Amino acid sequence: MKKSSLVGILLLFVVFAVGIIPFIVPTASEKVASNSFMNLLYNFSSILEPYKMIISIILIIAFLVAFILFLATVSKFDKKSFSLSAWLLFLIPSVIGIVLFMIPIEFESGWKVPIAKFADILSGKLEPYMPMTAMVVIVIAAIGSVVFSAIPKDEKQQSFWNSLFKVSLFWTITRVIGAVFAIMVAFKVGPEAIINENTGGLLLAPDGLVSFLFTIFLFAGLLLPLLLNFGLLEFFGTMMVKIMRPLFKLPGRSSIDALTSWIGDGTIGVLLTSKQYEEGFYTKKEAAVIGTTFSVVSITFSIVIIDTVGMGKYFLPFYATVVLTGIVLALIMPRIYPLRGKKDEYIDGKPFTGEDEELPEGYNVITHGLENALTTASKNRSILKIVKDGMKNVLDMWIGVAPVVMAFGTLALILAEYTSFFTFLGKPFEPLLSFLNIPEAADAAQMMVVGFADMFLPVILADGAIHSEMTLFVIATMSVVQLIYMSEVGGLILGSKIPVNFFDLLVIFLLRTLIALPIIAGVAHLLF
Questions:
Q1: pTM
Q2: What is the pLDDT of residues 415-434, one digit of tens each?
Q3: DSSP 8-state class, residue 298
Q4: In whole angstroms, what separates CA 234 from the centre of its chain?
Q5: Which residues pair with 77 in a beta bridge?
Q6: Is residue 281 a contact partner of residue 233, using CB atoms and an 8 Å limit?
Q7: 255: CB partners within 8 A, 6+ apart
Q8: Are 130 and 152 in contact (CB under 8 A)?
Q9: How far apart are CA 273 and CA 494, in angstroms?
Q10: Cα–chain-centroid distance for residue 326?
Q11: How many CB atoms lie within 10 A of CB 7?
Q12: Cα–Cα distance between 489 and 455 in angstroms, integer?
């Protein structure tokens, strides 16, 4: 090993050694006066304490950069074939994207990825104006779709505005319904079933889902190029293909989608998947599998779910069960109906051959991944184009997704709130729960399916109505692993170009429930 490499490793060790002091040394109030060295560490830790968040981000960035460079070194990658600017274009935006979308950081309000925190801050500042703003955008989407439906389609002049507003009759009607619901809720006119605070009012409230989506879409749309355009997906995609393809029948680059959802936010995962599908990186089957299997509930929401039923002390076994069940479902769902029947062809009709995943002669997964990443980064040097593409992403999300969430989310919540639809659907689960020896099976049965409308409905209904800790654990865990919620992920998938319809989502939801229930019940019996 070269002397310069040893010096680099030594410097990195020093940075980490200094950086972790405030995380491992107790506060100065607990110091031991007899130990002068410990006193020194306590004092130094106290100085660094206010900067723990900044230090943690710097450590993460340093580790990621060092890790990639280490892989390049041990793989004997020929760095001379690419300029320094290409390396910087790959490393800097990609690492910033990882930190923003995938690294949870502790804020005063709890652990969140920075992109979600930015959305929280902006939505808090704009909270009084968000319902009306969201309503205006949804109405524009509806009017634009109606107007463009009257304009003959010209394949030769397919502009951005055409792709934004020129949709099928079904989606035009959906956008109109979403606009009608939004107007009713914003102005508090119309049937109580629509404007109620537990239905349409829940979605379009100042702190509601639709309002929050507008801010998360703004940041996600503008900053997604950090993950998409600078080689990160190419780098990890080449390395992970040997794991993702045999296990989950997915390309390696989908590992980034999965991590973004699991650690960050499921809604961002759906958007990332949709953009990758539109750009020709995923087949129809792959996009459907990723969107409905890997766009999981984030750790942050999982904490809220288990706290809602008053069982926060069981978070670790609860989340371990979520992970275990999620992996089992990810192994099974792509191999059964309806996902198994999706076509393995790209959005332009080109069939999947697997040739793109084969390693050229003389390459290994690391060297080939780095070459692909650096080649992609070298092609994206125009900041103006990246910003322009980011703004198009934002408009596409606002116009395409928000009306669908408003329409389908409101209808699903009306069914849950004012009808016995989910009680009827839940009846078949009563004997299954009894067979699995889950207490209060009759009351818990409808909570097995009401999550199709909204993720929080099962735990909200269970809180106070269900008294068995075992049953509460099962309901809370199930509400997270079911994944398809029409007020959030389900609505987003329908609003995106991912090739999945409403019936597919309903079947996937029920299958996930049936497969997951015995696993969760088994863990519950071990715990209680």
A1: 0.69
A2: 888 888 888 888 899 999 99
A3: P
A4: 19
A5: none
A6: yes
A7: 236, 237, 240, 243, 244
A8: no
A9: 13
A10: 14
A11: 10
A12: 9
